[in-house]
């Protein structure tokens, strides 16, 4: 016999459920079986149900009336389930029996005796109909079960390949455990960390999340869409879950759509389902309407795509203000965290939280105070996994002497560096037309191959301490309609999260001139170009586009550049500086470099190749001058690759 159950004043749905099933089976077995085993007498002697309901063990009708009266106020998962589906006593008993048989051996033995010789072990529909007639003077016809809401919503299923009357009603063991009080998230769900990262969320978003939670609690909304990075979206979902009193768990959208029981599990487990997805332009996100009726949900996605779901609230995740970024750094590094860390990069809260931990470890290992140098090292490897799918990191620090430019080009480049550093504060105090600009910077580097465009991008990244990624156009461009736009949107979203500098070489492949659109292919190409122009313009980060032929770019894109820098072929003075910059301690001397600069008109990229060619063939040890004859041979090789004849003066130098 079981231990005494809880009193009616502390009524628990799972406890009451078990007592209800045991008492009902005992009454049915003793009434309907010609020679019931002692098991049914033992179940009848267990007065758990009557103790809970303060009713007489012999008065089944009074117990049923008490159960019906208590159902609306019953707590826990069972109370919510009864209220949601307005279950009558026969349906309640049928579902409770199908759940209890998964855990209660005595219930399983009783079912086996009642259904012998069938050996399924779960209640068959004909038995449920008989139980309803005997215990509640009601009917549960087998033909009604396939259309019952409990089956349609996945709380119960019909198992077996027999005629319907012999088919069994089954409750997923995971759901049965949940209804019995096991609130551990299922294997398909990944719990988000607790709401401990409130400091990484913008203050305006916190206010909006509280308002959204209120609307959800009032039943005015069921889906909250958070548009922004996945990291901040997770933190925002954790905050929303705390406001709703629910545990946020991430769930893949596709299994959610195909497994109705997941909605029930979240509803009765106290979990808040969070979907992380990347919608592209033209994509539409939708969920089964039935799953929205009782279960609040959160969707975290980027800026593209639309949501086709009723009662949805959309919140754009704003960037952190400078003082909020500083506070996020201080939350990890302490009050002495230098303000320059907040000025250095326009990162979101979770990225700052992760980087601050890396900065702290690096500084402690070096016995130094956290500084910009530690942050630069940490940013070089942080969060690159998703971005690497569409771009490659460029790990190249270029010092002030590493980039050789004509005076006017150098001046324009310095202006660009200043613009990038001021991109967040540039708009302060300006008029209403510039009140809410996109803080991004878009620059075009135009010039012949080897003129220093890519090197200048590396120098800019070094100046800003930002990671540089070269965009893989082969990964971006896709022959299928709409895929190029999706790839570019995903690329820009990831770059914005890391505040990474993007380098798009040969940009005319993406942003070429638009045609008159005489056929379908041309019209689609024009639409794609229009999207790319708009998407780049609204990007909050820094994008550098390079081209060898500026005249191939669409003229409409010129206005969208914050600066256009022409990289001319270097003159004699610039070429001399390039030779010294490339050779360093291995220079053959000022006079020799002067001759090379005077008689060869090749730009820096070819000078680089010539130096490497000569060093590879030189028998001299490192630190000693390279033979000028080998440098001349390297230049001759570069001219050969270009299909040009070297100037005759070069041959004379090498003699």
Plain-language structure description:
With 655 residues, this protein is an alpha/beta fold. The protein folds into five domains: 8-179, no CATH class; 190-316, Rossmann fold; 322-382, Helicase, Ruva Protein, domain 3 (Orthogonal Bundle), CATH 1.10.8; 407-429 and 438-567, 3-Layer(aba) Sandwich (Rossmann fold); 572-654. The protein is 47% helix and 10% strand. The strands form four sheets. It has a six-stranded mixed sheet with strand order 3-5-6-8-4-10, sandwiched between helices. A six-stranded mixed sheet has the order 11-13-14-15-12-16. Strands 1-2 form a two-stranded antiparallel sheet. β1 (157-159) and β2 form a beta hairpin. α11 crosses α12 (230-244), α22 (483-498) packs parallel to α23 and α27 runs antiparallel to α28. The radius of gyration is 36 Å and the shape is elongated. It starts with 12 loop residues before the first helix and ends with a helix. Residues 1-10 have low confidence and may be disordered.
Structure, briefly:
Helix content is 47%, strand content 10%. It has 655 residues and is α/β, with parallel strands linked by helices.
Quickly give the structural class.
alpha/beta
Rg, alpha carbons: 36 Å
Largest sheet: 6 strands, mixed
Query: Largest sheet, order of strands side by side?
Result: 3-5-6-8-4-10
Q: How many domains is the backbone divided into?
A: 5
Number of helices: 28
Which word captures the global form? elongated
Q: Terminal Cα separation, in Å?
A: 110 Å
Got a strand count?
A: 16
> What is the residue-mean pLDDT, rounded to a whole number?
84
């Amino acid at each position: 016999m079981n231990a005494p159950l809880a009193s009616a004043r502390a009524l628990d749905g799972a406890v009451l459920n078990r007592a209800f099933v045991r008492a009902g089976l005992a009454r049915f077995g003793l009434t309907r079986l010609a020679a019931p085993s002692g098991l049914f007498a033992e179940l009848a002697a267990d007065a758990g149900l009557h103790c809970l309901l303060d009713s007489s063990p012999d008065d089944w009708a009074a117990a049923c009336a008490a159960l019906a009266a208590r159902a609306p106020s019953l707590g826990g998962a069972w109370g919510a389930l009864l209220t949601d589906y307005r279950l009558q006593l026969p349906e309640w008993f049928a579902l409770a029996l199908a759940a209890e048989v998964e855990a209660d051996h005595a219930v399983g033995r009783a079912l086996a005796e009642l259904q012998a010789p069938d050996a399924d072990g779960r209640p068959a529909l004909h038995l449920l109909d008989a139980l309803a007639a005997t215990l509640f003077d009601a009917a549960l016809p087998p033909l009604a079960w396939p259309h019952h809401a409990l089956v349609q919503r996945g709380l119960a299923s019909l198992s077996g390949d027999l005629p319907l009357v012999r088919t069994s009603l089954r409750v997923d063991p995971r759901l049965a455990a949940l209804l019995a009080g096991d609130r551990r998230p299922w294997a398909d769900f990944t719990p988000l960390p607790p709401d401990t990262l409130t400091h990484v969320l913008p203050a305006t978003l916190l206010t909006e999340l509280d308002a959204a939670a209120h609307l959800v609690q009032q039943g005015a909304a069921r889906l909250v869409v958070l548009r922004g990075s996945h990291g901040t979206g997770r933190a925002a979902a954790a905050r929303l879950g705390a406001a709703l009193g629910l545990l946020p768990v991430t769930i893949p959208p596709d299994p959610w759509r195909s497994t109705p029981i997941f909605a029930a599990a979240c509803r009765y487990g106290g979990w808040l389902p969070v979907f992380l997805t990347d919608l592209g332009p033209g994509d539409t996100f939708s969920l089964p309407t039935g799953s929205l009726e009782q279960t609040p949900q959160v969707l975290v996605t980027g800026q593209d795509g639309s949501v086709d779901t009723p009662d949805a609230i959309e919140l754009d995740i704003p960037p952190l203000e400078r003082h909020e970024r500083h506070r996020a750094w201080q939350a990890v590094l302490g009050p002495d965290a230098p303000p320059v860390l907040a000025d250095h990069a326009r990162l979101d809260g979770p990225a700052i939280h992760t980087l601050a931990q890396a900065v702290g470890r690096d500084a402690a290992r070096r016995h130094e105070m956290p500084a910009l140098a530690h942050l630069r090292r940490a940013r070089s490897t942080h969060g690159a996994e998703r971005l690497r799918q569409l771009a490659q990191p460029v790990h190249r620090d270029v010092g002030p002497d590493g980039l050789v430019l004509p005076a006017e080009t150098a001046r324009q480049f310095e202006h660009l560096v200043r613009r990038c550093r001021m991109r967040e504060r540039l708009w302060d105090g300006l008029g209403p037309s510039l009140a809410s600009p996109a803080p991004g910077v878009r620059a075009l580097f135009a010039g012949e191959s080897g003129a220093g465009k890519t090197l200048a991008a590396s120098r800019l990244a070094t100046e800003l301490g930002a990671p540089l990624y070269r965009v893989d156009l082969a990964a971006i461009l896709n022959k299928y309609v709409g895929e190029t736009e999706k790839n570019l949107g995903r690329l820009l979203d990831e770059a914005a999260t890391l505040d990474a500098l993007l380098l798009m070489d040969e940009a005319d492949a993406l942003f070429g001139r638009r045609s008159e659109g005489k056929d379908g292919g041309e019209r689609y190409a024009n639409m794609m170009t229009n999207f790319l122009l708009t998407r780049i313009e609204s990007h909050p980060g820094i994008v550098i586009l390079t081209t060898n032929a500026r005249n191939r770019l669409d003229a409409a894109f010129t206005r969208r550049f914050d600066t256009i820098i022409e990289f001319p072929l270097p003159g004699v003075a610039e070429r001399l500086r390039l030779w010294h910059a490339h050779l360093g301690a291995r220079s053959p001397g000022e006079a020799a470099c002067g001759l090379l600069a005077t008689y060869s008109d090749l730009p820096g990229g070819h000078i680089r190749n010539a130096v490497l060619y000569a060093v590879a063939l030189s028998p001299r040890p490192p630190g000693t001058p390279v033979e000028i004859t080998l440098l001349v041979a390297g230049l001759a090789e570069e001219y050969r690759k270009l299909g040009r004849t070297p100037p005759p003066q070069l041959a004379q130098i090498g003699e």
